[in-house]
Structure formats: structure tokens, C-alpha cells
Amino acid sequence: MLVNSCETEVDIQAPYEDVTLVYGLLNQQDSIHYIKINKAFLGEGDAFVYAQERDSSEYNPANVDARVEQLDDNGNVARTYPLIPDENVAKEDGVFYSPLQTVYYFVTDPNERLSSSAEYRLAINVGGENKFVSALTPLIDDNDGNYQFDGLIVGLPRVGLATVSQFTNSLAVEWVSAPGGKRYQLSFLWGYTDIYVNGNDTTQQSYTVRWPFPTMKAPNADGGDGMEVVINGEDFYKFLATQVPDFDDTPNLYRRIPDIDIDLELAIGGEQLDIFMDVAEPATGVAQEKPQYTNIDNGIGIFSCRYTLKLTDKELSKDSIEELIRGFIGGYTSEKGFCDPVTSGPLNDRPCF
Of 17, 222, 228, 256, which residue is least crowded by CB atoms under 10 Å? Predict the structure, then answer.
């Protein structure tokens, strides 16, 4: 008699294969440039236990030879920046090993920044695995540091978000897209200082409020396209109402001094970063499965560029500050208790000083 049988156990784990994970964004404004180099792991047993082991997700730095290479117009290496491992970078508690992590970096002289017109190649040799990982990115071309905002906002002596009787609804912030830049996000940064009195002790704390606008995209990464955000002043005061606690709800608060200036900040991301972020966004349709995107050869992750354009110390108009203090038009910030840093004399019933 012959007995036929089959095996019912299925091994859902594929044979172990080292997968290198890379995350790095270059910015010529920085003097220290960081690259994350990790590895994926797979093993029998509880994956959460493996995750708490440092060598499950990190290579031994002694086995990693990594560098960033500046390429000339012919694709030849013009300069090499060896990556240095720092094994003592703080890391928050979580699923993976903490409180330390390894991050690779290189340093450039602030007076000899990365060239905004060059391409850069990340080259990683993992000695123990006999593998080579690479990626290529341009930088945001800032015209050798001369890239700036465009239009009236540049020369405007004061930023008006409100007048005596109404909010401003047509303040335009303009710029021209930079070569290499695809994704843009404008933010207003404004701050205030709280002074606290508790018995005989006086302390102060400064706060910064970031007012972000929706992300915008240039038609392509070639540069030269006009872009703008039109500011509605009422939205600014509505936003502050959600970000600043009421004066009466802040224990021991004695004075709340508003800044009279506002800063404009434009964050720019490269084309590869834009694609990576688009793919990483949550699915909104019925089909929840999304494709994976990477520009890392023989690995997974992203190596791209970023840049931050700033226009600082733009003074707010007197009416804008008055609305902030008293809220005559909308009343959104009238309960915040801001004092008056501009008007002086006996008629000022909310002096800061």
C-alpha cells in the first residue's frame, strides 16, 4: 500500500536579504550635512524583540564606507566628502532601539558651501555584505546665494494685515521658482514674550508661532515660474486665537509683549523629495495600496535636496498691531492680553514698558 502525503506548513519568511535604508537631504545653507543609513531586518520570532536590538537595524560603522561626491559637468568626481559616523545621536523611545542611534555626517566650511549648480552622488560600500548603494541629486539652485522673494513684499516698509476698519485680503507674497525646486511651502513666523511674576521671582519666556500655508508645486523643476500666495489678514488673527492661550488662563502672567516684526520663510523641496512625499501621503481612494518610491540604487529611501528662503524683520503696520492688542474688527485676539509695544505716553492704557 502506498501512502501519499503533503506538507501543510508554509514558511512565510523569505531567505534573509540585506536591504539598505537611506534618508538624506542636502542643503548648501548648512555646514553640517546628515545622512541616515540603516538596514531592514528579518528573523524568526517576535519582530518587536528584534527591533529593540541595535544591530538589527544598524550596520557596524566599521563596515560602512560612505561618502558624498561632488560631480563636475562631465560626471567626474570633483570633490569627495567622507561620511563620519556619530554613534551617540539621541533618539526618542519607540518600537526601535533607543535612546541612541548612529547618524552619518560630513562638514563643510561655511565659507565654502556646497555648489548649488553641481550634482552630488551618495556612495555607500557595505563591507560585510559586499554591496554598493548609490543615489544622485542636484541642489536647489539659489544663484550663488542671490535667490530672494519677488514683488512688492520685498520693498514694503510695513506689512499690513489690518487697517482701522477692515482686514487686508490682498497682500501678495511672490517669488520665482528656483531650478531644482518643485515643492514650496510658505510660512509666517511671529513671536511674543510672556513675563511671569511669582512672589519675588520674575521670569520670561519667548514663543514663536508658525503660520503655514498650503503646499504649492511648480509646473516642473526647471525654475523660472512665477508663484504667489495671497494673504488674508483675518486668517492670521484667527490662527493666533488658536495658538496663544488667553491671558486669564495663563498662571502668574504679568505682561505679554508682542513682536512688532514678522518673518517670511519659504521651504523648498527638490523634485525627488516631492515624489517621495506624494507617494508617502495616505491613500484617500477605495484602493488603499500605494506604490513604493525610492531613488536609491540597490536600496530604499530618498536622497534629495531642500532649501529655505527667508525674509526677516518685516515690521507690522501700526493698525495690524492695534488689532492684535484690542481686536476692534474681529475680536480674535482681544482676550490674549497683548500690551502695546509701540504707543507711549499717558494715553496708552496697555503699556509694555
Answer: 17
The vertex-101 CA angle with 96 and 105, nearest 5°, equals: 140
pTM: 0.89
In 3D space, the residue among 38, 33, 117 whose CA is nearest the CA of residue 82 turns out to be: 33
How far from 141 is each of 65, 208, 309, 337, CA to CA, in Å? 29, 29, 12, 44
pLDDT under 70: residue ranges of the chain: 1-17, 42-45, 128-129, 283-290, 345
Q: What angle do CA 91, 19, 49 make, to 5 degrees?
A: 50
The CATH number of domain 20-138, selected from 3.30.565, 2.60.40, 3.40.50, 2.40.10: 2.60.40
**Residue range 219-228, pLDDT digits in tens:** 999 999 999 9
Amino acid identity at 266:
L
Return phi, psi of residue 86, to 5°: -120, 110
- Distance between CA 147 and CA 149 in Å, rounded? 7
Taking a C-beta distance cutoff of 8 angstroms, is the pair 332, 326 a contact? no
